[in-house]
Design brief:
Helix content: 40-55%
Distance between the termini: 33 Å
Structural class: alpha+beta
Order of helices and strands: EEHEEHEEHH
Radius of gyration: 21 Å
Number of helices: 4
Low-confidence stretches: none
Strand order of the largest sheet: 1-2
Mean pLDDT: 87
Number of domains: 1
Number of strands: 6
């Protein structure tokens, strides 16, 4: 049996414990990432755009944009569909975390960043940053309900 010495005491390490801990930690990190994606999308869904109206010549109809400071208004759903989470792996393929962002190669990759932070022509319409405190609240409520106060 493998052992470990810490603070002058030698303990036997259960080899299965590391695997279980790693799997539980991965499941929890995945839960956090998925919750963040859900909250970012919900922030966009729940937004009530109050910006300028635009006539869409190709599609027909009208579209109301978001005002500066508001989350982006939904027009084509491209941005919402591009908000994803994914595994972060070590060189050996072991999952070490999860990342959240806009899917690489998506048409939304560039304008999603511009909407979040703004640029010289457009003021920010944040949607990732306002979603983080909501996500943290959900995770805190989940952990306190399942693991006691955290």
């Amino acid at each position: 049996m493998p052992t470990m010495t810490s603070f002058g005491k030698t303990v036997v390490i259960n080899p299965g414990w590391e695997v279980k801990f790693h799997n539980d930690a991965n499941a929890f990190m995945k839960f956090i990432a998925k919750t963040y994606v859900d909250q970012v999308q919900k922030t966009i869904f729940d937004s009530k755009p109050s910006g300028r109206w635009y006539h869409r010549k190709q599609k027909g109809g009208w579209y109301r944009a978001s005002a500066p400071g508001q989350p982006p208004a939904i027009d084509t759903w491209t941005l919402v569909r591009a908000i994803v989470y994914g595994e972060i792996k070590e060189g050996n393929g072991k999952i070490v975390g999860y990342g959240v962002g806009i899917k690489a190669g998506s048409p939304a990759a560039t304008y999603g960043l511009v909407l979040e932070f703004g640029n010289s022509r457009i003021k920010p319409r944040p949607y990732f940053r306002p979603s983080l405190p909501k996500t943290m609240r959900i995770v805190r409520n989940y952990t306190s309900g399942n693991f006691g106060a955290v």
